[in-house]
Design a protein that fits this description.
about 250 residues, mainly alpha, about 75% helix, 11 helices
Length: about 250
């Protein structure tokens, strides 16, 4: 599994697509601070909450966590490079025929993806912080507290995006289509919104990944209230990984 992860990291480092993605992520961080803009999506966040948002350095991480759901779309390239190409070019068979188990293969892909998502999100926050320091200054600001918040937010956001990507991986393996998987990533928030409108069920909110991260950014959820979201997220990841390995097992090598 470690060998697969090393190969994936090396391939990413040599890919122009990931460099472009990181540049876009950095640009979004700068623009978010410069224009003091919150971009929202999801079914559980009231956009009116952003109208009274205070833009200064102490509130910067909170504001950008709440407005960073756009990163989901930037990270589609990570999904395509790490997983999409494997199945489009059928190169995943090389790993499986060399003795790697299906579950180990899928899990290695997921862990690599999660690490890249967390690091890329952390880069976004670093750019936001540096831009904020230039714009607002550091007078009376606890930078250590902000940095700690950045680390925690990067892990939470990376985990939530990885939930969506684990589902997309299952769809990719089922359909053998990177396009179908990418489209699913794009329309997932819409699917959740439609499900919410039709069912009127409170349970649907736990599948609203973007809405949850925005709520975290606005400090609208306590630790206890966050647990159901995290439980559902971890359950989706485990089921998707096991499901993906089962589907691969039934495919002809």
């Amino acid at each position: 599994m470690v060998r697969l992860m090393k190969a994936d990291f090396y391939r990413l480092s040599q890919t122009t697509g990931i460099r472009i993605t990181l540049l876009v992520v950095a640009a979004l961080g700068v623009l978010s601070v410069f224009f003091e803009t919150a971009i929202t999506s999801g079914v559980n966040v009231d956009n009116d909450l952003f109208k009274e948002t205070v833009w200064d350095l102490p509130h910067l991480m909170q504001n950008t966590v709440a407005s960073s759901s756009i990163l989901n779309y930037c990270f589609i390239s990570v999904f395509v490079i790490l997983i999409g190409f494997e199945f489009s070019l059928k190169t995943y068979k090389n790993s499986l025929t060399s003795g790697t188990s299906r579950l180990s293969f899928v899990f290695a892909k997921y862990v690599t993806e999660l690490v890249v998502l967390i690091l890329s999100t952390f880069l976004f926050f670093i750019i936001v912080l540096v831009s904020g320091i230039f714009k607002y200054g550091t007078a009376g600001v606890d930078l250590f507290s902000i940095f700690s918040e950045m680390l925690l937010s990067s892990v939470v956001m990376g985990l939530m995006v990885s939930v969506l990507f684990s589902l997309a991986t299952l769809i990719l393996i089922l359909t053998q289509s990177s396009i179908m998987a990418a489209v699913f990533i794009v329309i997932y928030p819409l699917i959740v919104q439609i499900a919410q409108l039709i069912t009127k069920s409170d349970v649907i909110k736990y599948f609203d990944l973007a809405g949850f991260t925005q709520k975290v950014g606005l400090n609208l959820v306590s630790m206890n209230e966050s647990l159901p979201y995290l439980f559902v997220g971890v359950a989706i990841i485990l089921l998707s990984l096991v499901g993906s390995s089962v589907v691969i097992k039934h495919k002809e090598l």
